[in-house]
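Run folding on both entries below.
>entry_1
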Amino acid sequence: MVTITLSPLYHRKQQIIAIDFIYNFAIKEYIKSINNVKWSATKQTFYVENTIKNKQNLFYKLQQKKWYVDYSKLNKKQEIKKKEQSRSIILPILNEDTQDNLNKFTKWMQQKRLSVNTINTYKEVTSYFLRYAQLKKKPISKRLVEQFNYDFIFKGNKSVSYQNQCINGIKKYLDYNSLSFTDFTLERPKKPKKLPEILSKNDVKNILDAIANLKHKTLLTLVYSAGLRIGEALQIKVQDIDSQRMLIHIKAAKGKKDRYTLLSNNFLDLLRIYYKTYKPKTYLFEGKNGSLYSNSSAQSILKKACAKASIKKRVTLHTLRHSFATHLLENGTDIRYIQDLLGHNSPKTTMIYTHVSERSIRNIKNPFDNL
């Protein structure tokens, strides 16, 4: 019998219910289809926010499958650190009218053709703001936005990136309601200027050599050799590979822009072996039943490869893209071409690689050598 275990957890300053089970594709797809269920790469589990409404819906959906549900841990009080508890705000569930308005706001964003990720992010942060407004029992005003910024974001110890996402989401919601954002001015906090982690060419080779699975090796090789975001790599279709011109056509990438990037000769050899073995039909990398391959699966592959290759740096899939750009710069490639290959809007974004380029730093004469 299928067993589903429900456990209380604390994730991103929020009480959640973790949904655990022995892996099975059909079970995974059903769990994913339940309203408000999300995947946490950090906790490596599916979860829902721990609310009465979510509990009721979750129990109902699981009972329909007649699976055994172990919810004994939910009866125990969740241990939350006092420090975290003091900073968190328990927000009420949205009332029906506000929830209906939020759904209309979501459809409005869809009509504006915003990306799925942007829509989900704006919907989530706006939901928090509207729940906060409901808690305070106040209409939307500049003062309320400032209070939300302080109580929920600052006191909640949210990141600068998250704070900017909240501002963007609220701004879009005000636009939807035909309200001027200039009346609700919030200063955007400056992001700390952190330099990206860069792998050496030898590190990249060791990571790729550590991967035995042909599909996994081909995917990560593509991400590095073409300087792609993982979302772009997973969206590539078979016909996007132009082996005659040695280019890869990236379609509707960030900012809904198309571009071309490099197709490596060495990668093409690997790709041909992969294609003959797996025979993908639509997407170059397909999950089960022709579905899109999972982002989290790709990250897990990289993590295991780094451990096997004894790489101690903090490496993500985006690290491969950063390393591709830096290695191009170190090979003498004009930064304007690198900007085009990466699909950056502004050269300022690409200029960050001049700060981590080994070639540019090594050319500086150390004054200690002249003592």
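>entry_2
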Amino acid sequence: MLGWRFRKFEPQQGRTPFDDLFKLFQELLLHTAGDVAEALAWLTELDKQYHLTPDDYGIADFIEELKQRGYLDEQAGKSGYVPSAKLELSLRRSALEDIFTDLKKAKRGQHTTHKSGYGDEFTSELRPWQFGDSLEHLAVSESLRNAQINHGIDEFQLTPDDLEVRETFYNTQSSTVLMIDISHSMILYGEDRITPAKKVALALAELITTRYPKDTLDIIVFGNDAWSVTIKDLPYLEVGPYHTNTVAGLELAIDLLRRRRNPNKQIFMITDGKPTCIKIGKRYYQNSFGLDRKILNRTMSLAVRCRKLGIPITTFMIARDPWLVRFVDQFTRANRGKAFYSGLDGLGSFVFMDYKRNKGKRK
């Protein structure tokens, strides 16, 4: 049976009631697409049933503390509150912490290849200075020591032969487009698939903007059509009464990546179903029953086109139906990309692990 299973609330040592409620409030906020009033109503109802708060701290105290800490802004011209920029940032950081836990074991900014060259990360290796080397890479102490050894202290002089520079790693840069399916099937049969997809997108956005600032991330959503969204929009994404126009999403992704100068380009696509829609002129051609050959051919041709452009597509299929798996296998072979079939719990770690591999693999 699908749904939530609650257990007795046990606060962690050293945490305040606000800390524990805030974690749950952020999760509820993603489920309500950023509706503060609805998230607080859910939190109040959960407190009634499961006694989340201690006797000396209630939900009203929590709301007041949210306002005092700057997590809520008043709606312009309306009663009630909306998430502040500080809360949106907190949502991204929380998603990053929840999903990409293995980041804590890595050095900040680690994004190297096995090749040496003109990069930003210094290694322990030294080499003689060559014409054209940047002075920023000059190993000053070692160069002065060479000058002292070669010429002595009495007639100290520094010549080009004394200079040494530090070797650097060539850091790859990548342009990524993240495609998020917002068709009706993402909430079909009572299973919420859009909230984990949003959480992954929030975490990936925070990962790239903080760990790899030279990379680019474009986010698009696709239903009957496809359009770009900003990082700020992610918590508020909602599923609509849409079919799945994978073709529109891929066409927009290709167009966005054409504008990027980075040599490494890739597409991540999070979806739970088959393509069921394409647009022919101003008319939508839709078929929700099975895999329509007309829709399938357009989708496969774009997979091949991305392969010829050097753009791998990594598909994260939130389903395990045998006939859907066969379709994704065909799509992946046509693109020579990757595909993962996972439940909702494993989605985040798959995204991060593949992101790191793609970053270091291509020149």
